[in-house]
Amino acid sequence: MRLQSAIFDMDGTLVDSMPMWAGRASALVKSHGRVPPPDLDSRVRAFSVLEGAALCKELCGLPGTAEELAEEVWGQIRHFYQHEVRPKPGLVPFLSILKMEGVWMYVATATDRPLAEAALKTAGIDGFFRGIVTTREAGQEKRKGPAVYERALRRLRSTKKDTVVFEDALYALRTARDAGFRTAAVYDSLEPDQEEMRRLAEYYIESFEEMTLTE
Questions:
Q1: In this structure, how many other beta carbons lie within 10 angstroms of the beta carbon of residue 113?
Q2: pLDDT tens digit string along 138-182?
Q3: Which of 25, 27, 141, 151 has a CA positioned 20 to 30 A from the CA of residue 46?
Q4: Residue 89's closest CA among 6, 213, 210, 214?
Q5: CB within 8 Å of 134: residues ≥ 6 apart
Q6: Counting beta carbons within 10 angstroms of the beta carbon of residue 53, is it exposed (0 to 12), middle (13 to 18) or buried (19 or more)?
Q7: Does residue 91 contact residue 125 with C-beta atoms inside 8 Å?
Q8: For the CA atoms of the chain, what is the radius of gyration?
Q9: Are residues 73 and 66 in contact, defined by beta-carbon separation less than 8 angstroms?
Q10: Pairing between strand 5-8 and 163-167?
Q11: Hey, how many other C-beta atoms are within 10 angstroms of the C-beta on 115?
Q12: Per-residue b/e over 89-110, b at no fewer than 16 CB within 10 Å?
């Protein structure tokens, strides 16, 4: 893999956080001593935290308002990012190689800045990156367009042909590719369409551990 600069998604790409997000509804219900319906997490997957909390309240009879329950969820998320999140296997040696080779790196994430900064620090990888840009700051979700990657590219002072975007989600990978970026698909178990990820991306990474063997 030859590149001058790199833009990394965070959740599911750099850090192993997607199971936490995927299980947030069940975790909330269990924290109140209730048993969640088997399909609860899949039902709230596309919901905001507040919408998911409201559904948990409705289905499981949780106490408090939806807003109060949502704040409980955010508390659990903050605790995870501040104390528990870990880098994906093999990531740190891979980032070390890129840094040693002079590759400039940036994070482009849908997670809000305070949580992203906490996650990178807790995972011990914040020192590898020149900065973070969030979709909120860029004013556009990854599903809707490449603004977050374009902003990161400007800060890296690079070009699309010299920059690889690393993503674990098909929709985000497609957005970056359609915008003219080189792309690397990073395997995460919560992305079901790995064959399409493999087809679209210039590189496909099942594990960063592979990369330290081939670099």
A1: 13
A2: 999 999 999 999 999 999 999 999 999 999 999 999 999 999 999
A3: 151
A4: 210
A5: 108, 109, 110, 111, 112, 113, 116, 148
A6: buried
A7: yes
A8: 18
A9: no
A10: parallel
A11: 21
A12: ebbbebbeebeeeebbbbbbbb
- Closest to 13 measured CA to CA, from 106, 99, 152: 106
Residues 174-205: tens digit of each pLDDT: 999 999 999 999 999 888 899 999 999 999 99
Gap between the Cα atoms of 162 and 209, Å rounded: 23
Nearest to 111 by CA among 127, 130, 134, 94: 134
DSSP assignment of 40-95 equals HHHHHTTS-HHHHHHHHHHHH--SS-HHHHHHHHHHHHHHIIIII--BPTTHHHHH
